[in-house]
Design goal:
mainly alpha; 8 helices; 59% helix; elongated; single chain; 158 residues
């Protein structure tokens, strides 16, 4: 994967195709090509010479959104290649944790495994609940709201 700071859009349509493309389509092509290299919205916007807000406006267009999805798959493939190099020792490891997080965010259906948290009591036994204190308190509240005096055992000492 190229160094994100050195992104150069590789979009170069043929002369015949360039005549049929609008300026916006040319910029979108340049943006998508840059995104495929770096996987970053801001860097891709800088490389294509657009404001990042333009990208968000373009995403409202279903055709561009589909093209973005395809470019995102290519960017993820670059990350996967880089992860394989790190895993096999081919290359210089930088931040494996960051790489994992990037993969999880870009392709969660593959890299973001669901977690399950379970709680148990002492020595793995079920959690014990002290229900009697709760029941006493609820009983005292019910008595007070009904206008009855609280039971003697639950009254504070004078």
């Amino acid at each position: 994967m190229p160094i994100p700071g050195n992104v150069v859009p590789l979009f170069a349509p043929s002369a015949r195709d360039a005549e049929e493309l609008s300026e916006q389509q040319m910029r979108q092509g340049a943006w998508l090509a840059a995104y495929e290299q770096c996987g970053q919205i801001i860097k891709s916007s800088e490389a294509a010479g657009i404001n990042k807000r333009t990208y968000f406006r373009w995403m409202k267009d279903p055709v561009f959104a589909e093209q973005f999805y395809q470019s995102k798959q290519i960017a993820v493939a670059h990350l996967e290649d880089h992860a394989m190099k790190l895993a096999t020792g081919d290359g210089v490891p930088t931040s494996e944790r960051l790489l994992i997080k990037l993969l999880e965010s870009l392709k969660p259906e593959v890299y973001n495994q669901p977690t399950r948290h379970e709680h148990s009591g002492r020595d793995g036994k079920p959690i014990e609940h002290n229900v009697s204190a709760r029941e006493s308190l609820l009983s005292a509240i019910a008595s007070l709201t009904a206008g009855e005096p609280a039971p003697a055992s639950d009254r504070p000492a004078d």
